[in-house]
Each structure stands twice: as C-alpha cells, then as structure tokens.
Amino acid sequence: MKIKVFQFEIHFGDVEKNIEKVKSLFDEASLDDVDAVVLPEMWTTGYDLENIDKLAMNNLHPVIDVMSELAQSHNVNIVAGSVANDKGEGVLNTAFVVDRQGNLAHEYSKIHLVPMLNEPKFLIGGSNSADVFEIDGEKMGVVICYDLRFPELFRDLSLEEAKVIYVVAEWPIERTEHWLTLLKARAIENQCYIVASNTIGTQPTGTTFAGNSIVINPFGEVLAQAVSDEETVIESELDLEYIKKIRKDIPIFESRRKEFYKFL
Q: Which pLDDT score, from 0 to 100, does residue 117 have?
C-alpha cells in the first residue's frame, strides 16, 4: 500500500484559500500509483476558534464534495484530515475519509478537546468512539491530534484489527519530542503502522506548529519523515503483511491478561 502525506502551512481563517491550496497540491503531486493521501487537522480554517462557528462546514459540506471530486479524478483514497464541522448542536472537529469512488467511507469527531488551546470553549467533543474503516479491503483507523495522548483509543483500534492508524494534527513545536515519542510508542505497542500528518508555520494566535509528519512501521522504525519548517509531501510503501511477522515474533496480543487490567 503506497501512501502520500501532505504537510503544509494553513491560511488562518481562509476556507476558500485553503481549499484551493489543497486542490493545487493534488494537481502537483504524482498520484498515479498512490493508494491513499493524508491531510492534517483543521486544514480548512486553522485554529481560528474565535470565528469557528462562522467558518465551520455544514455537515462536512461543501468540502466533502471537493474531496469526492479529487478522489475520483485521481483514483485515490483520501484521509481528508479534519475540519470544523457544524451538525446543528455545536462545532465539532471532524476527520473523514473518502474512497476512490468519492464516497464517504468514514467520519470521526475528536473526543478529547485540548484545554491548552481552549478548544472546550469553542468546540464540542464527539459522541462516538473511534472505529475502524476499510480502504481497499484493509482495516484502518483515524484519530485527531490530542487523541495521541490517550493510548486506549489506539489499543481499541488495534484490537479491531486496524493495520494502519492515521493521526491528523496541528501539533505545536514546543512539544515536538512528545509528538515523535508518542507516535513511535503507539506503533510499537500496537504493532501497526502509524501515519501522521502535521502542519507548519505560525498562526496569528502565536502558535507555531511542529511539522515532522511521519510514517512509522510496526517495529517502531521511521520509514519517512518531514522536517519542521517545510511544505512537503512524504511518501512510503506500507507492507501490511509485515504486521503478521511482527505480531508472531513478539506476540503481545496473545500475552495480554485482561483480567488484571483494572480500568480496561
């Protein structure tokens, strides 16, 4: 499975400009033999939370229509990052996936809101757990930024046989080491591929993002990694059969003792 991860700077609060930018990234990238493209968190707006109620999508529209058209024209699955999304009860931070045929394959709204960015003041948390979805017959999962600090989500997805877990983010540069360490830990402890897309640049709020979009294999090895301050596209080939070897060599799932885990 071949994937490409887009890392770019988001135009703060400018939905139209961000959509045009992503469309141009698709046009510029060579996607003929690519199975999935991955975008970062809140890429339509950035963290313009003061205006998020006015900038939010309406149940993913119109951005889902753009993603559907791109998926069909490039014959590629799109892990479309996340966007501010109004479903009528408040604004959610919603990740979604569109398949090659342009159909909505999955959506998940961030359940862990970030106190450090004052998210709970402007957003509401999702009401459903992260579940697996399928890309070309293979099980995957997606989580959003701060979710990375909650290993329970990743273990749930891996127990549901997710072979790849995507992490879409706007992760700040001050906590770059947390980003890289936690991503590697999630790959190792769940023996799955971790594919993470982050943003770069400094927004008017003063937050600078860490970049370092990355692909990590089930043994914890880095297959591809961006730097902290460059717009770029990283790519990697994921050998999904390799997961079987790692889980056979180090059989952590067979060694689990659920009866002794107090809170799981």
A: 86
Q: Is 192 an active-site residue?
A: no
Of the residues 110, 139, 170, 192, only one is catalytic, namely 110
* Dist CA 38 CA 17 (whole Å): 19
* Topology of the domain comprising 2-260: Nitrilase/N-carbamoyl-D-aminoacid amidohydrolase (3.60.110)
Distances (CA, A) of 24 to 145, 203, 214, 222: 25, 21, 22, 28
Using an 8 Å Cβ cutoff, are 218 and 191 in contact?
yes
Q: Which long-range contacts (CB under 8 A, 24 or more apart) does 59-67 make?
A: 59/85, 59/86, 59/87, 60/85, 60/94, 60/96, 60/104, 60/107, 63/19, 64/96, 64/98, 64/104, 66/19, 66/22, 66/23, 67/96, 67/98, 67/102
pLDDT in tens, 42-92: 999 999 999 999 999 999 999 999 999 999 999 999 999 999 999 999 999
**3 state DSSP class of 77:** strand
Confidence band of 13 (pLDDT split at 50, 70, 90): very high
Compute CA distances 219 → 121, 183, 227, whole Å: 39, 12, 22
CA distances (Å), origin 138, targets 106, 164, 218: 13, 9, 16
Instruction: Please identify which of the residues 107, 139, 145, 192 carries the catalytic annotation.
Output: 145
Residue 262 known to be catalytic: no
List 41, 107, 119, 170, catalytic entry: 41
Q: What average pLDDT does the segment 6-11 reach? A: 98
Q: What are the extents of the domains in the chain?
A: 2-260
Cα dihedral 144, 148, 151, 155 in deg (nearest 10)? 50
